[in-house]
Amino acid sequence: MKKVAIIGGGKVGKTLGRLLRKAGYKILGVVNRSIESAKKAVTFIGDGKPFRQNKIAVGDADIVLLTTPDDVIKKTCDGISKGKGFRRGAIVLHCCGSTSSYELLESARKSGAYIASLHPLRSFADPSTAIKNFKGTFCVYEGDKKATPIVKKIIRDIGGVSLQSKADRKALYHSGAVFGSNYVVALFHIGVSLFEATGISHKDATASLLYLLEGTIGNIKKVGVTKALTGPIERGDISNIERHLETLDIHNSQLAKIYSLLGSIAVDIAIKKGSITNRKGVKLKKLLKKFAK
Ligand SMILES: NC(=O)c1ccc[n+]([C@@H]2O[C@H](COP(=O)([O-])OP(=O)(O)OC[C@H]3O[C@@H](n4cnc5c(N)ncnc54)[C@H](OP(=O)(O)O)[C@@H]3O)[C@@H](O)[C@H]2O)c1
Question: Which of 73, 173, 253, 293 has an alpha carbon within 20 to 30 A of 264's alpha carbon?
Fold first, then answer.
């Protein structure tokens, strides 16, 4: 039975801890800043001892999860390494999405541990809900050759799906997640605000755009991203696009800029789809560029 120590039993630490415990791993200990918080994490996980001291908890763990906030992962790892807290051959993992293991956990490697990162592509607002919905969650990993087979096994054991990222490209991967999820919310917000500016209520704007978005998601699932593009750029409808840009520029010039920058990406997709010619694409980009500054 693999023994696990969790340094940082917060939203992610508690969720992974409970999932690992259910998958048959032994949770040795959970370390938080306050002992009260560590006790709560242990109760939630259903195993382990609560600690405030990193070294004691790590003990002879086979796997150490460093699930503290991102800005203290390196400092925490360095502190444990300095106290000779990691045993040789242990797997030390962090869960930060944008930074590689070698940037944050190098001191653990120097102490003889194998290092990796495991980023679950999911929002962990509430650990109980995250556990219920975890099955099928994509988990992006990178790390030492000796660590990655074990990390893949951990992901499989907790019901996730593994995806490997190049270590030096993690910030690109994480930006991709921002575009693919967080910025969809930001764009949706813009859409709702423009509907509201025409007199449509917030409730109706949300409902109608949600209906549209659900259709788009359905199309992406059915025909893939490129073929799912519809709308004026996909049709090469220059006069409509010009009208949008001029109106947006008066209403809120920032939105005209966003429209034009994203429009240029949409032009590339439309060319790839074959719905507009290269020549039409050049014309559209010239128009969009006027509003990009
Ligand atoms: N939240 C998400 O949706 C999400 C998704 C994917 C990946 N991640 C990654 O998961 C990691 C953890 O994020 P989180 O959202 O779980 O954070 P969190 O809920 O804020 O929990 C952080 C935990 O770390 C403890 N802690 C803070 N400083 C510490 C220290 N110096 N030593 C020991 N414990 C310390 C805190 O203890 P106290 O309770 O005593 O304050 C807290 O329990 C981060 O790397 C984050 O990027 C998060």
Answer: 173
**Using CA atoms, how far apart are residues 215 and 224, in angstroms rounded to an integer?**
13
Out of 137, 165, 193, pick the residue that ends a domain: 165
3-state secondary structure 98-160: CCCHHHHCHHHHHCCCEEEEEEECCCCCCHHHHHHHCCCCEEEEEECCCCHHHHHHHHHHCCC
Torsion angles phi and psi, residue 123, rounded to 5: -90, 130
Is residue 34 lining ligand 1, measured as CB closer than 6 Å?
yes
Nearest CA to 85 out of 5, 164, 167 is that of: 5
Instruction: Give percent above pLDDT 70 in the chain.
Output: 99
Q: What is the DSSP string of 31-97?
A: E-SSHHHHHHHHHHHTSSEEES-HHHHHTT-SEEEE-S-GGGHHHHHHHHHHTT-SPTT-EEEE--S
Dihedrals phi, psi of 96, to nearest 5 degrees: -70, 140
pLDDT band at residue 55, thresholds of 50, 70 and 90? low
Number of structural domains, the chain?
A: 2
CA of 14 relative to ligand 1 center, distance in Å: 9
Ligand 1 pocket mutation, candidates 14, 51, 68, criterion most atoms within 8 A of CB: 68
The CATH number covering residue 113 comes to 3.40.50.720
- Ligand 1 and 120: CB distance under 6 A: yes
Phi, psi at 69, each rounded to 5°: -60, 150
Indicate if 159 and 89 belong to the same structural domain: yes
Cα-to-centroid distance, 31 and ligand 1 (Å): 11
The alpha carbon of 9 and the centre of ligand 1 are apart by a number of angstroms equal to 7
The residue segments making up the domain with residue 187 are 173-290
Q: Specify the DSSP element, H or E, that contains 161.
A: strand 161-164
